[in-house]
Amino acid sequence: MRFPLITLLWLCALCAQGFTDTSVDRPNILWLVSEDNSVKWIGCYGNSNAQTPHIDQLAADGFQYMNAYASAPVCAPSRSTWITGINALSMGTHPMRSRYEIPHDEIAYYPDLLKVNGYHVANCRKTDYNIGGRDDQDCWDNSGQVDWQALKQSTPFFQVINLADSHESRAFGEVDNTEHDPAHTTLRAYHPDLPAMRQNYAHYHDAVTKMDAAIGAVLKALEVSGMAENTIVIYNSDHGGVLPRSKRFLFSSGLHCPLVVRIPERYKALWPAPKTGTQIDRLVSFVDMPKTWLGITSTPVPATMQGTTFLGNTIEPEPEYCFSFRARMDERNENARSVTDGRYLYIRNYMPYTPWMQQLGYLWKMEATQVWVAHVESGNASEVEARFFQPKGWTEELYDTSKDPDNINNLIGSPEYQAIAARMRIGLRQWQTEIFDAGLLPESESVKRAAENGITIYEMVRNPKLYNLPALLNAADLALAEDTTKLPELRALLSSSDCGLRYWGIVGCFLLNDVESAQVVLNDESHEVRAMAAWVLIKNDQQAEGLKVLRAMLVEKSYATLKILNVVDWIGAAAAPLLPVIDSLKLNKYEARVQETLREKFSADVR
User: What does DSSP assign to residue 390?
Assistant: First the structure.
């Protein structure tokens, strides 16, 4: 099997240090990963309606982490972070299902390093690493079904088992025939109390119970194999979810995940507390996990890895915060960051002009989404229930999750919380700088710039001549301040040679309805800038000129077509005259999804 250059170099280092000595008593690791469920679906995390006896028992026999957070609230960027130990946002692999390349000669996958250290590494079966240039299966000895006999003969082993029973798709379909009683559900404060909503909750409770049963079957197989006393068992979900406004969102419901670790007595030196059954309050980010797995297997950690080791003999001090990000979710453009200290959750929205709940083809398959949308459109929804289908309007959000677990009471404007917001704001900026936040350029411009320079996005964002991160962060802050006294500075950005700075300049002018500035950049080299400028005109009663610009870019098949289609949707009815040209386009998968949404949305207006 081909190893990346960095892994071959690691092999030499390991051999020199004696780490390949298989006589050392190293633990097997069995990592069980469920899909899409937040802590709120698990009994031992406080849901009295949940039926998860096997996870609950695992927590009683092990250690239950109470503050574990996904790096992203959706699978592919989350798993991209996992396989490398580097935040996807730091590599340019943060947009959902993008498959952008990274420098594989510099970045090993954690199974590569375990393999070199004498571990048999296996994964059943989901990968979804969101990284191009290398087959996802390449790093595994076995990427098929679990072979317990092979594991017994190949110790030490590191076996991942992905459990799809709780995936979002399991919340689809008919919801009126459930094992779980719909009356025994606790609805989120933002969900309307409707029969179909309760039924969908019950339907997903059934799915989580099936997932728990699958975990029970795996643990039984481990016992039968005779390897339980040599095996550390880890259980967590790959992010939060799964009813609408959880998965894909930077709220607690999308990020706060179960994490349980059972460590046999023979490895008691690795225990994070004196006795089993203990709840551990330490903050854990998903980016911490690969580094920690290497640590507890006595495998050296490469300098490229980010995060903090939270378990074992090489444990590091607890970080002050966990950070997460939200980027494009399938066909929908988005851009946001979050910070949590376990109690307070701070969110920075880089696109405050878009709704939280944009119509997303996959999410809209769920009965709960459909009845929620219908409830809002009927005019019967409360302010909280209707809020998430409207433009955010908030650049910043702050929630006290101990008092407001559903994150509906934004405290950002409250005087008594200003100090908390300030320190979290500073923490976010420091983290963005440290990890080389790759999301300050629109996706299409980032891809274009990296390609023009013949490098990966990972390399580009580490070159200050190509990606001036401090300047981009400052420009974004300036744009989102919505301060009319800063208009001269925003207009100055429009003259920059950097399209990223021009982009933030026009975003600021958009938020201030600066038509004069928009006119200046209607023919900008950047299609992202042009699209925003056209929108400024359209929302300020200059529809003909703005629509002309958008139409021209669509006809010429702009490199930013997906963003332009999103802008058309955000504009609303005023953009309906564009439907004939949109209808005629031959588009890729995600563009076609927005195309279909616009057909449904505008067909009546055109007629």
Answer: S
Report the distance separating Cα 159 and Cα 393, nearest Å: 45
CA distance 505 to 516: 13
| Domains parsed from the chain with CATH numbers | 27-312 (3.40.720.10), 447-606 (1.25.10)
| Mean pLDDT confidence for 254-272 | 98
Are β-strands 256-262 and 231-237 bridged in parallel, bridged antiparallel, or unpaired? antiparallel
Collect all residues with Cβ–Cβ distance below 8 Å to 231 and sequence separation of at least 6: 27, 28, 29, 30, 222, 264
Residue in this structure with the two tokens 């009815």, named with its chain if needed: 573
Evaluate if residue 579 carries a pLDDT over 70. Answer: yes
CB atoms within 10 A of CB 284: 25
Per-residue HEC secondary structure of 248-303 comes to ECCCHHHHEEEEEEECCHHHHHHCCCCCCCEEEEEEEECCHHHHHHHHHCCCCCCC
Instruction: Identify whether 567 is preceded by a cis peptide bond (ω within 30 of 0).
Output: no
Dihedral of the CA atoms 219, 225, 230, 235 (nearest 10)?
-20
The reported pLDDT for the residue numbered 7 is 56
- Where does the pLDDT of residue 155 fall: very low under 50, low under 70, confident under 90, or very high at 90 and above? confident
Q: In whole angstroms, what is the distance from residue 403 CA to residue 160 CA? A: 36
Of residues 231, 251, 226, 230, the one with CA closest to residue 241 = 251
Euclidean distance between CA atoms 486 and 509, whole angstroms: 10
Number of other residues whose CB lies within 10 A of the CB of residue 47: 18
Tokens for 427, please give them. 């923490």
Q: Is the dihedral of CA 89, 4, 98, 494 positive or negative?
A: positive
